[in-house]
Amino acid sequence: MGETIDVERRRLVGAAAAAFAATRLGLIESARAQSGQSPSGGPADAPHTALGALKRIDAGDLSIAYAEVGPASGAPVLLLHGWPYDIDSYADVAPALAEAGYRVLIPYLRGHGATRFLSPATPRNGQQAAIAVDTLDFMDALKIERAIIAGYDWGARTADIIAALRPERCRALVSVSGYLIGSQERNAKPLPPRAELQWWYQFYFATERGREGYARHTRDFVRLIWEQASPRWRFDDATFARSTRALDNPDHVSVTIHNYRWRLGLAQGETRYDEWERKLAALPVIPVPTITLEGDANGAPHPEPADYARMFTGRYEHRLITGGIGHNLPQEAPQAFAKAVVDVDGF
């Protein structure tokens, strides 16, 4: 009886905190609307907001560079970026969450920005389990037991993995494009031709010509990916230049190429992640409270919401974000993304 009351009290306290945060977020949205910004965060809105000076911490294999905003006493929110993007995807999400009382942490993934490997001997491995372990190491280094974890693209996959295999570390989940956990065995099965066409760059990266081409023409390549993945996002040259600086990381090409080759079984992973990958190949369900998001103009390969809804066994909601929103949803629709984080905290 006593434990039931305690659990219920914690639930009610959490819901009250989320409601308070939602109220604050609503006030922020209202103020931005009055200033002429689009409250939906559509393709033409969202002026850049600086995330401030980077911090750095050694965690596992990496020296991780990260941005942090919001009160140190706030509930932790971990925001994970995708490829080929960077932490700037959250330049407008993070301040909104900070104003709502959250402690917001945004690390550069391995091979991106100022994050560096601690040893030259560490494989420049991009497999899914390695990036998930990096994230847990980051949380451990900061002594964060549980966090709301949110992401898109590589970041969503990483968040999904932690929520599935380490649910005790994930207070709640926001995942763009839903359930993205994969396996080499599943990836070995051919898709219909139109679906394969969407993955053209994966096959390009499978060749040494593709590796050299990506290394030589990184920015042209990335601009093409951005335009295909978000065909209605009218990003300007300054926005593009700011984010692509993160791709000058000396390990970016190696980590990127390994990620896509590993998916197709063309590159070996590390044996220390074999048990992780064995569990992920079984497609574990995600038991934590979750909101999945999808933009109505996502031009990147992505599953249909109906195909993955059953993989979320806790309280669950899917939201379609309209207005020409593409693959980089937190940057294209920051208020919708921030609202999802606040709302899932109240589940």
UniProtKB/TrEMBL annotation:
Q: What region holds the AB hydrolase-1 domain?
A: 76-204
- Specify the superkingdom: Bacteria
Keywords attached to this entry = Hydrolase
Q: Which InterPro entries would you find in this protein's record?
A: AB_hydrolase_1, AB_hydrolase_fold, AB_hydrolase_sf, Epox_hydrolase-like, TAT_signal
| GO molecular function terms listed in the Swiss-Prot or TrEMBL record | hydrolase activity
Query: PROSITE patterns of this UniProt entry?
Result: TAT
User: Is Lipid metabolism found in the keyword set?
Assistant: no
Q: Identify the Gene3D superfamilies for this entry.
A: alpha/beta hydrolase (3.40.50.1820)
A matching Pfam family: Abhydrolase_1
Tell me yes or no: is Phosphoprotein among this UniProt entry's keywords: no
Chain coiled-coil ranges: none
Alphabetical list of PANTHER family matching this protein:
MONOACYLGLYCEROL LIPASE (PTHR43798)
Q: What is this protein called?
A: Alpha/beta hydrolase
Provide the species name.
Answer: Methylobacterium planeticum
